[in-house]
Each structure stands twice: as C-alpha cells, then as structure tokens.
UniProtKB/TrEMBL annotation:
It comes from the Bacteria. Involved in DNA repair and RecF pathway recombination. InterPro entries: ARFGAP/RecO (IPR037278), DNA_rep/recomb_RecO_N (IPR022572), NA-bd_OB-fold (IPR012340), RecO (IPR003717), RecO_C (IPR042242). The keyword DNA repair applies. Residues 1-78 form the DNA replication/recombination mediator RecO N-terminal domain. It comes from Paenibacillus rhizolycopersici. It holds the Pfam family RecO_N. This is DNA repair protein RecO. Keywords: DNA damage, DNA recombination, DNA repair. Belongs to the RecO family.
C-alpha cells in the first residue's frame, strides 16, 4: 500500500553500501521507519530528504507493518541552519533523540509531532535554545504521562508560597507536605514561575523570552532532575550537550 505522510526526520542511519533508513515522526501515523534506496549516492535525488531535522512530505510503499520504502518526497523545511551550527545541532539532536526514545513505534498523537515541529522552528528562529529545550522537555513529560504539577501541592492540592519541588513525587510540595520528600529541591521564585508557565504553555506560543543566566542554570538543574527521575533515559545527545557546556565550546 502507498502512504503519503508529513513528517520530521528524527533519526537517519546508513544501511548497506548506498542506502539509508530514516525514522519519521508524523502527525497522523506516529513514528515510522522508511528505507531510502541510493540516498548515500552523490547524485541521489532523495539524499536531502534523509537529513536530520528535515520536515517534508514522504510517499512510501509498505506491506502490512514494518519498514516502508520511499517512493518520492518533497521538502517543506530543511532546517539547514540547525545542521550547520554546532550548538543548535546539539540541541536539535537532543530533542529528536528524546522524542525517539519516548515515543513508541506508530504511537498515534499529533501532540508529539506539533511540539517537535515547534521546537525545531524555535531553535531555527533564534529563540533561546535552552528555554526552548526545557519547555520541550516539559511537553515530553506531559505527553508520556509524567507531567509535573507546580500550581498546587502534588500531595494535598494546597496552593501556598512553598519553594519546594519534588522530582520523585512529580511537582510542588506545600510547606505542610515538605516532609514527604527530604530530597525535595528548594527553588527560587523566578524558576518556580518559569516551571508553572511551562506546565501551561504550548511550545507553539513561546515568544522571545529573556532569562538571566543564573536562572537558566538553576532551571537546567531542576529539569534534569525531573527528566532523570521520571524517564531515566541515557541519551548520547544529552552527554554531548553536557560536554559543550562543560568546556564552554
């Protein structure tokens, strides 16, 4: 059967001497693997369609389930600027790998697709990449069923001015419930405000936000704790991002 889908390349790998297998995140068909024959050849008309972060329309043939074979395609947005910048490529790779490891094959849901599309567009348009990525992480947690709550206490539902958040319990703890997690993190009002905003905001609505460097560093620590505790993924792209940050490359 012939399929026509709009998708984003979240993974591309060599297969054999001249072929590639790409993994697409699509709006209507979940995550799909497609074989692109001859994609590694110099004169291949399909080579550009296999580049990471490429947003395009893909027409492929597939029998039953399993791997499809590309018939034709058209690029909607190449996101070339993301691939030519080391930092942006690292952030975009992390976003794609995070979604790839979280989303099951052919798990249907336009939310995954629209948030990834907005994430890559945000990185391409010059928005603060760290803010874009942390908001994307929040959306991934929510889509995976682990979305934290920062409006009210996750234990009793009370709303107070408590500065404590618990990655283990999944959100804010009021002062009365603080004892339920001795390892709860105390955060500054600025970070708590951002976390509360991220919980409610769709990535497509993110504008240009200016955040102090110390606030971003604290936000990174808190979001890492939530991601590690709730998803526990070991991602190569995240390790590379940490190396860039460590050596200030």
């Amino acid at each position: 059967m012939l399929y026509r889908v709009e998708g984003i390349v979240i993974r591309s790998m060599d297969y054999g001497e001249g072929n590639k297998i790409i993994t697409l995140c699509t709006e209507t068909s979940g995550k799909i693997g497609v074989l692109v024959r001859g994609a590694k050849k110099v004169k291949s008309r399909h080579a550009a369609l296999t580049q990471p972060f490429t947003h395009g329309e893909y027409v492929f043939f597939r029998q039953n389930s399993g791997l499809g074979t590309l018939n034709q395609g058209e690029i909607i947005e190449s996101h070339f600027s993301l691939r030519e910048d080391l930092f942006l490529a690292a952030y975009a790779s992390y976003a794609c790998e995070l979604l790839d490891k979280t989303l099951q094959d052919e798990e249907i849901g336009s939310f995954w697709y629209t948030q990834l599309k907005a994430c890559l567009e945000g990185l391409s348009s010059g928005k603060d990449p760290q803010i874009v990525i942390h908001l994307f992480e929040m959306k991934i947690l929510q889509a995976a069923g682990y979305g934290p709550s920062f409006e009210n206490c996750v234990s009793c539902g009370r709303n107070d001015d408590s500065p404590y958040v618990s990655p283990r319990l999944g959100g804010k703890l009021c002062r009365g419930c603080r004892h339920q997690d001795p390892a709860a993190m105390q955060v500054t009002p600025g970070v708590l405000k951002l976390l509360t905003l991220f919980e409610r905001m769709d990535l497509r609505r993110l504008g240009n936000v200016e955040v102090k460097e110390e606030t971003k560093q604290e936000l990174k620590t808190v979001m890492r704790a939530f991601m590690d505790m709730q998803l526990g993924l070991k991602l190569k792209s995240l390790h590379f991002l940490d190396q860039l940050d460590k050596y200030e490359i």
